[in-house]
Amino acid sequence: MANAGNSTGRECLVLRCNHFDPLWRRCWDRDFRDSGRRFVSYRAIEEAWIDDALAACEDGSSCFMIECSWVLRHYLERRPERLETLRALTREGRFELLGSGENIVDANMIHGELLARNLILGTLWAEETLGVRPTTGWHADGFGSSAQMPQIFRQCGYRWLPALAYNVPDAPYWRGGELRGHRPRYALHRPQ
Question: 20 to 30 A Cα–Cα from 159, which one of 19, 34, 36, 126?
Answer without folding.
Answer: 19
